[in-house]
């Protein structure tokens, strides 16, 4: 159990670092002309928020899979719903921001979807693990 837990969190951390690096490099390319100066939340804060939330969700799912496998799907749905609600509260200033440049909105929701895919992948692995 501990090996599965450590492996999943290590993989999550590696994926998050790679995605953060690629996202940061995207804003450093001068020809694209994207600026992060007017972002409400720095990219690092958004990645940290989603990484911590995903780590908590994966940890809880691993714990539940060891105790009661039948409830794993329900736990995933509940935890993902809670993450969406908290993300919406966090994203409200970004959504309501009047700007001609929608880069921050797109960035926020792409990061949300990427981490959601990672969580769904680990949940599917836990559900298929016999």
TrEMBL record:
This is Uncharacterized protein. It holds the Pfam family DUF6168. It comes from Flavobacterium alkalisoli. The keyword Membrane applies. The chain crosses the membrane at residues 7-29, 41-65, 72-91, 106-124. Keywords: Membrane, Transmembrane, Transmembrane helix. InterPro entries: DUF6168 (IPR046166). It comes from the Bacteria.
